[in-house]
Amino acid sequence: MESEPEHTHTDIDQTEEHCARQLLCLTEQRTREEPQYIHIDQNEFSHRRHKTQKEEDIAICECKYDEHDPESACGERCLNVLTSTECTPGYCPCGVYCKNQRFQKCEYAKTKLFRTEGRGWGLLANENIKAGQFIIEYCGEVISWKEAKQRSQAYEIQGLRDAFIISLNASESIDATEKGSLARFINHSCKPNCETRKWNVLGEIRVGIFAKQDILDGTELAYDYNFEWYGGAKVRCLCGAPSCSGFLGAKSRGFQEDTYLWEDDDDRYSVEKIPLYDSAEDEPSSRLFKTVNSPSSEFDVDGMMINVNVDSGHQLMSTALVVQSLDSVPMEGVVMEVKTEVSEERKLYSQENQPPFSRKNAMISRIRSNTACRNYHIGSGSMPNKRSKQYSNGKVKHGAQKQVDAKSFASLLASREAQEEILKYECMKNDAATHLESLYNEIRPAIEEHERDSQDSVATSVAEKWIEACCLKLKAEFDLYSSIVKSIACTPRRGQAEPYDGNNENEINYLQS
Ligand SMILES: C[S@@+](CC[C@H](N)C(=O)[O-])C[C@H]1O[C@@H](n2cnc3c(N)ncnc32)[C@H](O)[C@@H]1O
């Protein structure tokens, strides 16, 4: 027997309470606009039909109802509960006693809407809630990833500040902007008392808000949005947690890549200073010169610390290359003065590390994987090295590796051959970066979804493509930088009369001049 498909229409319960909710007009404190939403208790599917569960796919647990043991009827030990799957009515051995149909039966905790200070509406616990308890389903319109991207951009353009789209898996999202449950009012906290969990309900994945801890009646409910920021306004987080990351989406790739910028007056990369080395500690850029003498030197390239061994004859030994990823430093204690800040900074700063995704988009919240599911993580490896530095005005400056200006280097050299070599390698490096970027756009949903959710697997072919492109980019970068190091070490500068004569001493003098 196949289970009935879930309904696909707006589910308007005609009880007084539901009518009241449906007609709820919320005064938006910040903008004084009155956004409306339509209350639904079940997801709606606009781009596809609701899945119909096949009989062979129905998971049947082995629980046996025992009236003396309330946990017996699909409690924590139930095989379906352990795999975050709801029992299917008519198939569960516990029949009407089955306790594992909470999404289907809307077994929500009692909650209440309230106005927050500066964060619009929020949701309160209206009874004591136990750790692990299902609180409410995050309902909305289930839409494709593409549609979510478009809607998110459209909402941003319309000036809608509150973001209600959460990603469901690699290909779909839930949009609760126009239609949703009360879960749409739950705010973000960097130290949340709730969390999102995905459950398989009659063959569809649904998202629930669950208590992470015991929650007292009257406490605001909050979960970590795990927001992915794609551009547009940066919204200051007002959760008030000591470990607050400062902005919604501050931990996301897009936000971090956008935020780690150099300021214009930072002259460490002027050609004169031969900017091959940099660190957040502002170590002298002349470090490279010193390293020519040493058997092993290191410099920082796009978040990788590269050790280069130079033999006594100053020939670069590429076989001695060691590439180590630097650990990223979490953004703690970011202090800004305004609540919403349109990223005007971007116009002021030069930045070559463009995130591989349209900047027009706003934010989409991610759902973390369930504890009951496999939980592993593949990092993309493309995050820049992040270090932050607090200024007296309270702002934080984040260090990213600015790209070496190969053309400027080449123009310093007298040898045409050396110039051409550097430019050739730069071209190859740029091609590799462009290729990686376009590949990333292509496979972005799969890669990012897998990074955040172990329930969604990345196809081997996608992973292989990605790894290959990453390696190609790294190799191209290495080739470029090694050709620069080699040229600087072995080629006279323009305007210098004597070409390099193989005399070590002369060369070191020349480099230090
Ligand atoms: C899903 S809605 C939550 C309900 C929203 N407060 C309302 O009035 O409709 C998410 C939006 O609420 C606001 N918000 C949620 N948590 C916040 C926080 N910790 N700090 C600042 N704004 C927050 C942001 O505008 C965010 O885009």
UniProtKB/TrEMBL annotation:
Pfam families: AWS, SET. GO terms for molecular function: histone methyltransferase activity. GO terms for biological process: methylation. It comes from the Eukaryota. The keyword DNA-binding does not apply. One of its GO terms (cellular component) is nucleus. Residues 56-107 form the AWS domain. Residues 109-226 form the SET domain. The keyword NADP does not apply. It is found in: Chromosome; Nucleus. PROSITE patterns: AWS, POST_SET, SET. Residues 233-249 form the Post-SET domain. Keywords: Chromosome, Methyltransferase, Nucleus, S-adenosyl-L-methionine, Transferase. PANTHER family: SET DOMAIN PROTEINS (PTHR22884). This is Histone-lysine N-methyltransferase ASHH1 isoform X3. The gene is LOC110759580.
